[in-house]
Amino acid sequence: MVLDDLGSSLRGTLDSLRGKSRIDEEDVEEVVKEIQRSLLQADVDVSLVMALSDSIKERALEEEPPGGTTARDHVLRIVYEELVDLVGESTELPLEEQTIMLAGLQGSGKTTTAAKMAWWFSKKGLRPAVIQTDTFRPGAYEQAEQMCERAEVDFYGDPDEDDPVKIAREGLEATEDADVRIVDTAGRHALEADLIDEIEEIEATVQPDRSLLVLDAAIGQGAKDQAQQFEDSVGIDGVVITKLDGTAKGGGALTAVNETDSTIAFLGSGETVQDIERFEPDGFISRLLGMGDLKQLTERVERAMEETQAEEEEDWDPEDMLKGEFTLKDMQRQMSAMSNMGPLDQVMDMIPGVGGGLMDQLPDDAMDVTQDRMRNFEVVMDSMTDEELENPRSIGASQIRRIAKGSGQGEETVRELLEQHKMMARTMKQFQGMGDGDMQRMMQKMQGGGGGGGGGMGGMGPFGD
Is the pTM above the cut of 0.85? Predict the structure, then answer.
């Protein structure tokens, strides 16, 4: 997850309150000091950190915890609410026909962001198109075209045309059937007069419904000045923060944007078109504090199931896995769906009671190892016959040797897969006996219970009411 160090540090600080039913001023002082240190290391502005910590201290000492709430959960709720307020709101972005213009300095990630946003809109049922107008940076056209191919969205650009305004005008005509048109503009190393003139001309031509500024998270607190400069020059309606997976300064960019009275539209991390998410302050902070994010998790699960079913030659219902025998084919589909959900560490962070504290205890490469094993298992299953996939109990020693040889994997990997299948089959049998009431109780326990999450705070979102 983004800002891993900040999240881990905040969770560790709050865990120092475990087991306490009441807290005194000394406890609060210690917690506040650690929170200050965590936020300053994440490059959040000093004045903001001091104002935030003063508010947390005042509320923790003066507000009476709700009945049955532990000291840790009481402070956790306060920290959550104050951090949500600190990062600000999400940019309004309705799912309707619109034209969006992207602006930003060179290297901020505009071209990648344009394709990612187009992919995101396509998953919401709209038809997007990207118009590439950057004639300044060599390779911009080729990069945009390749990214849009991966995103499976419409693309327009003209590598032989030097006039970005003409490309923008012709791009609008060529993509008139699109619901959402995303216009990618050129950047410079600084906000110079010629860049401002170019963006203003493109803006006058495309008349965007929204202009979004793309900022590299590594800019940290410098995001405040850059956002203000673009706002004064061309006007911005929201911000996309990119490369949050590769910097400790992300906290500075997140909070600096809010200081300019702007809002955040998307967060970007990683190089694939799927590495983007709509900024939702409550869910983002919830994950940061180890309490999961059921909304994002649900969206990913639904999208993954749709993509997995689209890859299948025959229709199947995931609920079929809860009926009859759980076969290796079922396991193959389940693994494919998990793969479509994205990196496992991101998915784990979204599960209440599983992300956060539990993830902190795992080695840094634990999820990489797990993903490697999944890939190896998929290769093994590709070397099996339909009969073996449907009836794994029939697989004997000679078949294991054949499958290992055919897949290029060791016999131990084949046996690991078969053992993993047995474990999953046993788990599925437990689910088969569950009624709706049992399932609801289990979900409530996930939302409200134990682990690194908001233990004891009920099943109504992070805190209950």
Answer: no
Q: Are 133 and 186 contacting, i.e. CB atoms less than 8 angstroms apart?
A: yes
Cα–Cα dist 270/409, whole Å: 29
Query: Beta strands 264-268 and 276-278: pairing type?
Result: antiparallel
Identify the pLDDT of residue 74: 83
**Beta carbons within 8 Å of 414's beta carbon, 6+ residues apart:** 380, 400, 403, 404, 407
- The structure tokens listed for 452 are 């690194």
For residue 193, the surrounding DSSP H or E stretch is helix 193-206
Backbone phi and psi for residue 2, each to the nearest 5 degrees, phi listed first = -65, 150
What is the rounded distance in angstroms from the CA atom of residue 93 to the CA atom of residue 210? 9
Instruction: Give the SS3 label for residue 240.
Output: strand
Q: Is the dihedral of CA 159, 162, 164, 165 positive or negative?
A: negative
If you write DSSP's letter for every residue of 294-344 in order, what string do you get? HHHHHHHHHHHHHHHHHH-SS---GGGGGSS---HHHHHHHHHHHHHT--H
What pLDDT, in 10s, does the model give residues 404-463?
999 999 999 999 889 888 877 776 666 555 554 554 454 454 444 433 333 333 333 334
Cα 257 → chain centroid: 19
DSSP state of 392: G
- Exposed, middle or buried, 125 (CB in 10 Å: 0-12/13-18/19+)? exposed
Q: What is the pLDDT of residues 372-404, one digit of tens each?
A: 777 888 899 999 998 999 888 889 999 999 999
- Phi and psi torsions of 238, nearest 5°: 180, 175
CA distance to 35, 103, 141, 180, 349, per residue, from 197 (Å): 43, 12, 21, 25, 43
Q: How many CA atoms lie within 13 A of 182 on its CB side?
A: 29
- Res. 464 pLDDT band, cuts 50 70 90: very low
Q: Check pLDDT > 70 for residue 341.
A: no
CA gap 304, 268 in Å, rounded:
19
Q: How far apart are CA 243 and CA 39, in angstroms?
A: 19
Q: Which amino acid is at 5?
A: D
d(CA 303, CA 325): 26
Beta bridge partners of 90: 264
Distance spanning both ends of the chain, measured CA to CA: 28
Q: How confident is the model at residue 5 (pLDDT cuts 50, 70, 90)?
A: low
Structure token pair of residue 77? 């709720």
Q: At residue 177, what is the residue type?
A: D
Q: At 201, list the tokens.
A: 């001309």
Contacts of 361 (CB under 8 A, 6+ apart): none
Q: How far does Cα 75 stand from its chain's mean position?
A: 26
